[in-house]
Amino acid sequence: MELKRIGVVGAGTMGNGISQAFAVAGVEVVMTDVAQAPLERGSAAIASSLERLVKKDKLSAADKAAALARIRGATDLAAVKDCELVIEAATENLPLKLKVFAELDRLAAPNAVIATNTSSISISRLAAATQRPERVIGMHFFNPVAVMALVELIRGLQTSQETYALAEAAARRVGKTPVQVRNSPGFVVNRLLCPMINEAVFALAEGLASAGEIDEAMKLGANHPIGPLALCDLIGLDVELAVMQVLFEGFKDSKYRPAPLLVEMVEAGFLGRKTGRGFFKY
Length: 282
Fold this sequence. Notes:
Blueprint (H helix, E strand, L loop, with lengths): L4 E5 L3 H12 L3 E5 L3 H20 L5 H9 L1 E4 L10 E4 L5 H14 L5 E4 L6 H5 L8 E6 L8 E6 L5 H13 L3 E6 L6 H17 L5 H11 L6 H8 L1 H15 L8 H9 L14
Parallel strand pairs: 1-2, 1-4, 2-3, 4-5, 5-6, 7-8
Antiparallel strand pairs: 6-7
Helix pairs in contact: 1-2, 7-9, 7-10, 9-10, 10-11
């Protein structure tokens, strides 16, 4: 089946990035959010991102205009009713996602696939909030969506092969490489990456080295393109904490306990780049 129209729930960093990727690939997109202001911010982010591609000669001005024309914003979730695939990219919060999934199940077309961009929450649990659990799957894109080539495809216990095939085709349609992952806390990338970042926060709190020195050590000693603390600032300290809490609760293993400094910084509102201050100032 040729994918013609998708819905994206959430116009934030991941939502607008996913919307842009599909629009550039020739797919009509309905991007929804709870209010007009976040929709406008998301649309502006897409326009700015596409303009950068034009300036780098990676996209023509005509293709930019065509991509923007394929994206329609809406504050009413019912706008996804004609979409074959709906990708939820709301805040990483289980009660919120369960509520969104129940609403999408009621509003989306009966044969539509409902995907989630969650970075850590159980797909089986989200699927159980719907009357179509076999048509629910995880499609975990990475930030920034325009640059990162990976999409983790996560099956719940209920996910059908037909649903997996549609999600895999959708990922390839936007030029991504899908990797099939079993449903488990943190999946693959965050299962490995987030504990490393968390350990860097422990090292900082213990005075092992400064934030800049920890990052420089990992860049030069492990050949990482960005240090773990700068990466945490990019991801968002609140997102890092949410993933560590999911890992800790899911495995009941103390090695996944969130660093106290990470918890305190989130409580202080130091969330990284999006607030202008995290482990570094922006």
